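Dear colleagues,

For the upcoming journal club I promised to circulate an example of a predicted protein-ligand complex. I picked one with iron/sulfur cluster because it came up in last month's discussion. The inputs are reproduced below in full, followed by the predicted structure.
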Amino acid sequence: MPRGVVPRQPAKTGRQGRTGVIPRVSKPAASKAPVAAGLRPARAERSSASRKVKYNPLAPDRIAEILERLNQLYPDVTCALEHRNAWELLVATILSAQSTDVNVNKVTPVLFRKYPTVQDFAALKPEQLEPDIRSTGFFRNKSKSVVGAAKKIVEDFNGQVPMQMDQLLTLPGVARKTANVVLGTWFKLNEGVVVDTHVQRISRRLELTGQEDPKKIEQDLMRVIPRERWTLFSHQIIWHGRKLCIARRPRCADCLLENLCHAADKTWSTVELHKNAK
Ligand code: SF4
């Protein structure tokens, strides 16, 4: 058992949740009603009650409870990347790869003052952009992506960021994660779930997926999370990953999802742990 995990303790009375004198319950008289051929309801009910209910992490009730508690924890969250239009959000999302939103938010205001429109970016050579975005890391690739996306938007989409997933995916440097951020946050279209490093980690901890590949994780999440919640769910899980469910030492004792979570790497627990939930 991982360090710090507190197992469930039996009640000191030896009786779980039962105190006082247990009343005697008289056995009900056997029904005199004739039983239809092949139907034995009393026995069927007894055997199903005694059968152990198998834990299903994807049970609709459990999913609904997770979503409800996320609403309580993060009622009005949205994307933390500062932006004023779809183009700025697209650029900020490209720059956020392998970086932090705080870091990107320091860079983009200066960047958009220097190059206010998508046409300004389209007129650049990638090398010209590199010094402005160097602090976000991977700046050579990101410069190519941003300038390439700007050129394509100007040439093929009349200077407007497209609203369709398949069109967004034709832009250099744009994969489903970035497209989902833009479609969900700016255009309010639930076309998919944003699977970043937080969503990847937490959806596994909560046993919403057993996959490791982001594309497969997204497919699993799209199956169990109601479509109208895809964007909000993504933002809530991303905030949860920043605030409480952090990678190395999740703050489980402070987490509202605690008794629904069986993650093997919890730091504190009132429920049994599942070794594959990580
Ligand atoms: S209980 Fe711990 S591991 Fe589970 S979701 Fe909360 S913070 Fe994350």
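Two points we might discuss: The mean pLDDT is 87. Residues 205, 244-245, 250-252, 255, 257-258, 261, 263, 266 surround iron/sulfur cluster (CB under 6 Å).

See you all on Thursday,
B. R.
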